[in-house]
Amino acid sequence: MEFTLKNILFILIFPCSISFLYYSLYRLYFTINLGKPEKNRHSFWQNVYRLFKIAIGQTKIFRDKKAGLVHASIFWGFLIFLFSASESVLQGFLPSFSWDFLGYLYSVITLLTDIIAVAIVIAILTAFYRRYIMKVPRLQGSSMESLDAVLVLSFIFIITVSLIWQNASHIIAHSNEEFAIRPVSVYLSQFFNPATANTHYEWAWWFHILTILVFVNYLPFSKHLHVYTSMISVFFGNENIPNKLNAINFEDENNEKFGATEVTDLTWRAILDGYSCTHCGRCTSVCPANLTGKVLDPRAIIVGIRTRIEEIGPALIRYKGQDPLLDQSEFTDGEQEIFNKKFIGEIENYDALWQCTTCGACMQECPVTIEHVPSIIEMRRGLVMMESEFPPLLQNTFGNLENSGNPWGFSPAERVDWAEGLDVKIAAENPDFEYLFWVGCAGSFDDTGKRVSVAFTKLMQQAGVNFAILGNEESCNGDPARRAGNEYLADMMIKNNVEILKQYNVKKVITTCPHCFNAIKNEYPDFDFAPEVMHHTEFLDKLITEGKINLVKPDIKKRLTYHDSCYLGRYNQIYDEPRDIIQNVGNYEFTEAGRNKDKGLCCGAGGAQMFMEETEGKRVNIERTEELLSTNSELIGVNCPFCHIMISDGLKAMDNEQVKVKDIAELVLENSK
Questions:
Q1: Which CATH topology does 549-670 take?
Q2: pLDDT tens digits, 187-204
Q3: Is the model's pTM score more than 0.70?
């Protein structure tokens, strides 16, 4: 085998390129690991399944079908291109190398490569059109981000075109391989002069190879670093959005800092999120706070994590002796100045952190399973528990939760007043119950919530359900304190609740509040209590299916729409049961809201927003109420007491007395004997 100058040059260039790439990724690995440790949440094979489904299958990308088709064409095309690229690289070492020994498999791959090359070119031109002609809002960023997008798209375009150029000129310069099928390249080959075709081939080969080598080394410094990191993010992520927060062990003496006031207080997974962000803006485009004119920008929160770790990471890595090219040393004055910069306030917007409703829409839309909400909560925890900085109204809420066991400060003695005259069993007096009805704070104290508690109680009694309530022993589940960052208070409340629930040997819990439902079902197991938990819409659907509730069909049809609460829907994927009930009870002309199910819009109450004040932009509940009213419905069905309050308030603010808000339990009771 004869080596040419081409091979000698390649053998010199290739190792240098790969070494530089290795060094870049090596530093990236140690930078990500500056974050706190976090356990893998799933088994290896669950991670592999999710990798193939979301990353390789591009399933979340297609939540936006047009953009998804463009991105998937480029992504899948490049996966197939790896085959041709590897052939070109190996030819740098072995001049006559070809994959043609694969026979007819080679035919299929070369055919696909040729066709997909055209698809990629079209996809790139479409991407340019969407970004720079249509100016899709979520794709707009800083001038540097725009330049980076141009460079990356140009790299991909050049790699694709140079491959076609290489194949077309090769067909004329050499006899086409026996098994190669390249219709596009064959067509283009007619434009090459046989006398100069070999020169074209060599130029195309070098152009192709050098562009690839420059591209792979540019990516670690680009916002498109997600090409390397997103698959890792998906591998260690969640298929659905995370429905629980990590608990803090306050009894561990080694825990000296709670929450995050600096980027290195976040987990390595959160820092990986910063490097995995594709800057696509899907998260921001569905954020209820951002949509209503507030400063919260979920993309900016994640980008801020990368910005900060890239500011302090190199100095920390060098200081820890993890950079093989630099000696360990003290921080320079310039580095110390960077460390003195406040992560929350100068990088992350303080007000934005307190505008999050924790609705999870950002995480639902993210194509690479980035977890915005847990990072926001960690920063809230740091502000509350380490800095004592939080919105003033939360001081009242925290005090009420600690002293009265509910966020409004009602006396615990009033917790069971709603049940007067209903002959409801109290657990302390009737320990032989099958189900515990966890009423919740809204269901115990708020007027709309109390109506729902009464309706659901009457339905269970009608169905002969053996249930009891805790009565005055019930306390807030801890969700408002947790989502507001006061984990210490939440920890205390949860442990107190668990002690009482265990005392009564509770095995089955039903609740009308999705926040209570999510906390007890998904978060209480971390506190050694894992009962069977059902939301009342699930339970009512079960009772109706079993024929235990006698329904009547009214003659008059009413127009009805339905609002999906975030903590029942996105957090727990319960969409069908409430809709099944609506179809089975009453006489309703049902119309879905424009944004529904996992694309539903938040009511604005979550993330402790119920107990804070919206001082910027339009109120989220007004935005949602307007959308629900646009269905021209007479009734708005809900499944959450906080959604009930927020949408009812929205109707009052709009002076609309005609449309009524009804919980699913109220709808069932109205249509039962």
A1: Rossmann fold (3.40.50)
A2: 877 777 787 878 888 888
A3: yes
